[in-house]
Amino acid sequence: MRHKTLLFALILMVAKGASQDALTGVETTELISNAFSKIHTGHAADNQGTFGSLDLTKTEAIVTSSFSIGKGGDILTAKFKGGVTDGLAAVFNNSKLNTNQSLEVLYHMLISDRPFIGYYHTDLMKKRQSELKAELDYFDHLYTYLQTKGLLGAVERALKIRRDAIQVEGPFSAKIIEIKLVNEALRNHVDNNLPGAILPAWFELRMLEGNKKAEALRQNDKAIKPSQFHLTWMSVGINARNDEFRLFDTDAPFEDAIRKEQKLGYGFSLQISSYRFSENDNNWYWALVANHQHKSNYLDLKKMDVTETVTRGTGDNVTRETSKKYTVYSGDYISDVGETTLNADYFYFYKNAHFVGLHAFSNAAFSEKKKPIYNLGFGLVVPFKDKQNKDTIVNAELYYTIKNLMGIDDNRYSVLERNEIGFRFTFPFQFNTF
After folding, report:
1. E-strand spans in 279-336?
2. 3 state DSSP class of 130
3. In DSSP terms, which residues pair with 302 in a beta bridge?
4. Cα separation of 171 and 174, whole Å?
5. 195-221 pLDDT tens trace
6. Average pLDDT estimate for 27-45
7. How much is the average pLDDT of 405-418?
8. Could you say which of 48, 142, 277, 330 would form a disulfide bridge with 248 (CB–CB 3.0 to 4.6 Å)?
């Protein structure tokens, strides 16, 4: 009975995977490049990853790049957004476009001291074996150099005996810690006892072998994908937004009725997000974002088309005219207004399904100059994988948004008529790991 229990425990360990306490920088970069890729849709809280996103309905593009900061799972993100508010058709036939661009920089702090990330047991053992081999090779190359130079003393020989013992004694974690201590002792002793003429060549060799070891460890981390993790981040960000548009002032003289306006706004954001990923179970991600900005209210103005007609000449009963049409904005323009927005996003993939996921989202806007506006939406996310069914090459989302859910200052339409249906296409990028 005891043997059966041990066998069952071993099978369970291999099936569910083993865990580790901390994330390396390479592991964090691989995590945000791969596991996050299927939830990238360009939504408001989509701030952890590296991707490009295009919203055909809003004529808006987003490019986001994320990098691991140090060790421990912290992430730095730069997010650029650019849009043409005149619509897709205007991009091809209108030289007087109304545009907006924004840049946001966020720092995501992993808020768990002991984050959970799991690997299949066999993969974890391969990872530990490769890590140990990289450390052993580093020692051997330095030791061989000292040996050829006739610079080996009693201390170095003692370290060689300890290095050989490491191959056969103790679990992998203990072996790796021990060989790192041996390598450090070797470096420190030699640095303090080598002749001055040899030191430059010794330091150059150490740097070369250190780079080789670092590259081997990076490739090792990239080769082993996590089977499961549950991580939570707290994020802070700063942002700037530039709006350029044409304002139509109906009360101004004809020559001054249409003028170009430009506003550079700024703000900051706070976010908390959590991602549960598993190769064998349900996957979900949620995020809450609070963003405060000082900007213009041009997106609250009324959008209209203006046609300018010029008479080119007249003939017998004929008048020849040319016209140009473009989009302008009209209304009570305010150049500086404070606005706070709250956004919530939730993704759900059943049993790690690769073919479709559910996306629910909502946002609320609170401004100094208008009543609160609430929006609610739902989407279907379809991640398209590569031939090996490993990496996401494109995400497509069909979304439906109920705008101004409470009908504030707008009773012309019913709640279901105040809607927006759109498509987003997102392309996750794979950057090299540094």
Report:
1. 283-295, 302-315, 318-330
2. helix
3. 330
4. 5
5. 777 777 878 888 888 888 888 877 776
6. 74
7. 69
8. 330
Report CA-CA distances (Å) from 361 to 64, 124, 244. 20, 37, 28
Per-residue burial over 242-256, b if 16 or more Cβ lie within 10 Å, else e, is: ebebbbbeeeeeeee
First to last CA, the chain: 50
Q: Which two tokens stand for residue 203?
A: 């330091």
Q: Which amino acid is at 108?
A: H
Query: Residue 55 belongs to what H/E stretch?
Result: strand 51-55
State the DSSP string of 122-156.
Answer: HHHHHHHHHHHHHHHHHHHHHHHHHHHTT---HHH
257 three-class SS: coil
Tokens at 135, concatenated: 């450390």
For residue 320, the tally of other CB atoms under 10 A from its CB is: 10
196 burial via Cβ count (<10 Å: 0-12, 13-18, 19+): exposed
293-308: pLDDT as tens digits = 988 888 788 888 888 8
pTM of the complete model: 0.69
Beta bridge partners of 421: 400
CA dist 188 → 137, 156, 174, 175, 193 (Å): 18, 11, 21, 20, 9
Q: Cα separation of 397 and 426, whole Å?
A: 8
